[in-house]
Design a protein that fits this description.
- The protein is an alpha+beta fold and about 220 residues long.
- The chain folds into two domains: about 1-55, no CATH class; about 60-220, Gcn5-related N-acetyltransferase (GNAT) (Aminopeptidase, 3-Layer(aba) Sandwich).
- Helix content is about 25%, strand content about 40%.
- The chain is built from five helices and twelve strands.
- It has helices at about 10-15, 70-80, 95-110, 155-170, 185-195, and strands at about 1-5, 15-25, 30-35, 40, 50, 55-65, 115-120, 125-130, 140-145, 175-180, 195-210, 210-220.
- The strands form two sheets. Strands 2, 3, 4, 6, 7, 8, 9, 10, 11 and 12 form a ten-stranded mixed beta sheet that branches. Strands 1-5 form a two-stranded antiparallel ribbon.
- A hairpin with a 2-residue loop joins strand 11 and strand 12 (about 210-220).
- Helix 2 crosses helix 3.
- The longest helix has 16 residues, at about 155-170.
C-alpha cells in the first residue's frame, strides 16, 4: 500500500514533518520522520522518499511494568556504556532486579509518575520517564530519556517524548523539567522541537575523569 502526503505551508515553514498511524491489529505505532528541501521530502538517510507502508519501522511504546525490570537494567547498562550523557556508565545503576521491580511498581501506582519503554522487533531499545515532584512542586515533573545508540535518529526519542507529554497533560503536570549536556546538540534540538526552552545552566555538573561538563536546564510549560 502506498501512502502519499501533500506538503502543507506549515510543513514548509518548519522544515520537517512525520507520518504516524496506529496499527489496531499489532497495537503498535508506525512512524516515519522527514525533512523538507523545497517541495521534496527526505528521510533520515537523506534519500528522497515516496512512502511505502512496508518500509516503515514498527516500534511499540508502552508503560514499563515490574516484569520488565531485568530487561530495563540490561538496556540501561547498554546505553550507559555507549555515551557519557547519562549519570552512569556501562555498570548501570546500582540496583538489583528486585529493587527495579519495586521501583517500576511504585512508578505505575504513582499519580504523576510513569516509565515508558520502546521496543523494536521485541527488543527494548529506549526508555523514558516522568517523576512527579511532591507538595508545592506537584505541578512539576522531572524527565529522563535514553535510546540505544544504534537507534538514534530513527524517531524513537520523539515517540517517547510524545507519550510523556500526553501523559503529563492527562495527569495535571504543568511543567516538565530536564537536564541535558550543553554539548549534546542532537538531544537539545529534539527537545526544542517539542517546545522545551532553556531556563538555566548547571556549571561543571558532571565530572568525568578530570573533565568538567556543563548541563542545560530545559522546561516545557504546558499551562
Amino acid at each position: 500500500m502506498w501512502c502519499r502526503r501533500r506538503l502543507s505551508e506549515s510543513d514548509k515553514k518548519t522544515g520537517c514533518f512525520y507520518i504516524q498511524s496506529y496499527d489496531l491489529t499489532d497495537r503498535i505505532y508506525v512512524r516515519m520522520d522527514y525533512t523538507i528541501t523545497g517541495n521534496r521530502c527526505y528521510g533520515t538517510d537523506g534519500m528522497m522518499k515516496t512512502v511505502r507502508r512496508n518500509d516503515m519501522e514498527h516500534i511499540e511504546i508502552r508503560e514499563m511494568m515490574p516484569e520488565d525490570a531485568e530487561e530495563l537494567i540490561a538496556c540501561m547498562k547498554k546505553t550507559g556504556g555507549e555515551t557519557d550523557n547519562l549519570t552512569f556508565g556501562e555498570e548501570g545503576l546500582p540496583v538489583t532486579i528486585e529493587q527495579e521491580r519495586a521501583y517500576l511498581e511504585q512508578m505505575h501506582c504513582a499519580e504523576r509518575s510513569v516509565t515508558y519503554g520502546a521496543w523494536k522487533e521485541g527488543k527494548l531499545v529506549g526508555n523514558a520517564g516522568l517523576n512527579g515532584l511532591p507538595r508545592r512542586m506537584s505541578h512539576y515533573a522531572d524527565m529522563a530519556l535514553a535510546v540505544v545508540k544504534a537507534q538514534w535518529d530513527q524517531g524513537i526519542g520523539g515517540m517517547l517524548l510524545e507519550k510523556l507529554i500526553e501523559y503529563a497533560r492527562q495527569s495535571g503536570i504543568e511543567i516538565i523539567r530536564l537536564e541535558v549536556r550543553s554539548d549534546n546538540a542532537g538531544a537539545i534540538h529534539l527537545y526544542e522541537k517539542y517546545g522545551f526552552r532553556h531556563v538555566g545552566r548547571l556549571p561543571a555538573y558532571f565530572k568525568i575523569g578530570t573533565e568538567y561538563i556543563d548541563f542545560e536546564v530545559m522546561c516545557l510549560d504546558l499551562r
